[in-house]
Design brief:
Radius of gyration: 21 Å
Structural class: mainly alpha
Number of strands: 0
Low-confidence stretches: none
Shape: elongated
Distance between the termini: 42 Å
Helix content: over 70%
């Protein structure tokens, strides 16, 4: 009886090229910057001040900018990860060192993304709290929604695959689920 053929993973190819990916990242960042500047201009022109919800939108945009900078610095390692996973290149010490750094930046970018998303949600919540300040029962629902969103943010951060991003590479490659690693970057 013949032994089964060794498992060979299917090549993992990114859905977009490196240049297209970075063009989209910086293009979206630039478009969002235009809208944030427009919002600040209108608020200052109309109210002669900024509100807490405006500060949260600015925080969210700064986090988005940080994410764009992270991807700019780590895009090469991201596409190297695709090649490593599909075994089209061999892991050299230099590549492994860059991958170790990449996983740490990946963890930071995911935390920044969820925090950015939460800042925008909180901005909406604060806006609606001010808008419905005199509506009976609205304040109770506002607190419920606020606590739900805080719990959701804590759950998202807590359920991240921290061991697959922050442990040493020998742990990541020997014990971490490769499907989890690839699902983190699957949308690219």
């Amino acid at each position: 009886m013949a032994s089964p053929a060794p498992f060979t993973p299917a090549p993992v190819t990114p859905k977009v090229g490196q240049i297209s990916f970075m063009g989209t990242v910086w293009g979206a960042t630039a478009v969002s910057a235009f809208f944030v500047v427009f919002r600040v201009f209108v608020r200052i022109k109309a109210f002669r001040r900024l509100w807490v919800d405006d500060a949260l939108v600015l925080l969210a945009w700064l986090l988005l900018l940080a994410i764009a900078v992270i991807w700019q610095t780590q895009v090469e390692a991201l596409y190297t990860q695709f090649k490593l996973t599909s075994q089209t290149i061999l892991p050299t010490p230099e590549i492994l060192d860059k991958q170790r750094i990449y996983f740490r930046f990946l963890a930071a970018s995911i935390v920044a993304f969820y925090t950015c998303l939460f800042a925008v949600k909180l901005s909406f919540l604060i806006f609606f709290r001010r808008l419905g300040a005199k509506v009976k029962g609205q304040r109770t629902w506002w607190w419920i929604v606020l606590f739900f969103n805080i719990a959701a943010w804590i759950t998202l951060i807590g359920s991240m695959g921290w061991p697959c991003m922050l442990k040493p590479l020998d742990y990541i490659f020997s014990r971490a689920d490769s499907n989890l690693i690839m699902s983190i970057t699957d949308g690219i």
